[in-house]
Amino acid sequence: MPKAKAKATTTENDSANPYDDDDDDDDDDSFNALPTGVLKRLQVMKSDNEHFKKEKKRLEGKKTETETVREAIEQEGDDTLKKSDELIKKIEDQAKIIQTMEEEKTKMYEKQLEKLINAAEEEMNLRDHPEKIADIQRELRLREKQQEDLNKEQGKIAEEMRKVQAAQAELQTQVDKIKDELIENERLLTEALTERERWQAKIEEQQALIDSIEQQIKENEKALEELKQQQRELEIKQKDLIKHIDQLNTNITKLEAILKDEEARVARLEKEVEETELKIKDLEKELEQIREKMQIVNEKIDRITKEIDLSEQKYEELERQKHELELQKRENEKKLKDLEDERTDRNNQLNRLQQKLVATEDLFNRVDIKIKQFESLREQQSANVESLESEKNRLEEQKMKQTDEANAIREQKEAAIQERQTAETEHKEAEKALANAKQRERELKNQYEKAINDENRIKAQLSRAILEENTAKSEMQAAHAKMKRAEPMETMWNLVGTVLPTLGGFAQSEAQKASRARAEYDRAREKYEKKQEKVSELRDKYATAQAHTKDAANLHIAAKQESARRQTNAQTNFGKFNACKAKAERLIEEHRSVVRKQQATETSFRMVTIQLQKAQAQLASTTTEIARYEQEKATHTTQINEIKSNIDDKKEDIQRHQRTIDAHRLVMDENKNALSDKDLACQQEKVKLQLLKGIY
Prior knowledge:
Elements: H1 2-15, H2 21-32, H3 36-128, H4 133-236, H5 238-499, H6 504-695
Helix pairs in contact: 1-3, 3-4, 3-5, 4-5, 5-6
């Protein structure tokens, strides 16, 4: 729309130009009748007016480009804000899904806790009613299977939670990306504003130039008035015209002097051309010297090439000798490896003999220990019967004490179980209140983020509106300045048209510029007032959005505090529940321990009688075992002496083989030294060759 208005204004100005073809055809005769000085002044005014129009068209084109860039940036900002709204909506949906899953998770935990409590109760009933063990065990296995199903379901829910968290992280990444795009758009908008300010400065400069041109036009108009006065004086006094002609001749003389200066400048340029040609000749001499130096360098390169060939031949010979030494080294290493493998085999044989010796000695020691143990056992078995009778009497007294202790602990256990159930109920209520508080915190957080997004969107709209307001204000000020410049000229051109009928068309066209300037100023002022109203409305919306954001932030903070308080309460109740649970479990375990001790005492009492019978039977077999181990001890002594003799022979054989390996190592060291010398010579020749190639 501004572009169309600019084109319309330009067309209107062009149609009102007094120098158009139609006006030229109508006023040619009148202009030819004017004096030469007046015609020159009018031509200067015409050229100034055309220059002003060209500059104005160029500035309007730059302004249109700036507006197009600004609109594109605004559209991109709106698209980004829309994407941000969509992402916030997705995040809210994800939050609802997470809330639902957390509620299901809480219910699952409650069911699991109930199952565990029921299992514990059933386990207590199992201990209290031994006659129902089979049925309760089947039900317990069913409970365990249900527990496994619940664990699998919990794993699936945890997997879904991880997927939701991954999706939420991806959405957060997209939000961060959009934020970066918003920052980039703001930067582009800032650059556009900077560019606009730069063009505004250029417009001001052009406006200053236009003012200067208008000042020249005023001066030209004043000179025109003087020329008219001179024309009237010329009609009265012919002598003044002659003086004016003499003045023009003086100006012509000055122009001729300027022409002579230009000719002198051309002569200086010709002299500079001659000096440049001399420099070119000097450069050709230097080029010839460089060619001679290149010939010397080529000869040096040929000499170095020959040295490189000789060095390469020597290097190849050294490489061949080095290769032969390396082959010999590998053969020596292979032979050394064979010798070492043989030595290893002999060492292994020695180790096996030593291990056999150790095993035989170990058997000998164990047999000796067994003999001593059986002798000691035979002495103890007679006293063992008396000890078992005393143990039987002690176990009867202990059984009575444990029965009284079990009854007392059972009463404490039942009271602790009741306390645990009460604490469990309070813990469930606290967890439910905590889940509700967290849900409200998430909802208020989403509302707070949405309020921030709305505030940023309105802020961006307000910035664009302020930019448009400043643009409209600049246009209004420019139109007002143009109107102020055109109004004083309106009366003068009307007077000129009245006084000089030959300039009637030109004067009328110039007088109409003031009317067009006033109309343009009215349009610019109306546009500026509309932009002001829009800015005021957006400022109110922005203030409302800021207040809404502040309220949302306060609500979010309050919700966080409430959630923290509920968290503390839940932790306190959880601690209380754990304490009651620990107490109940402790008493259950104590009761279980006392019952186990009671049962163990009864078992021990029955075992004492059995052990007494065993002790008598063992005493009879002890003498037989001692005689058998004495015979084994004599056999192991003979085996130990034979193995020691074989070990001494094997050690002597290994020493002879080691001397053979040491002699072969000396041969390998000599080969290694020779190989090192050849390798060093080869490396030196290689370095020399590389140096020659580097010089080459």
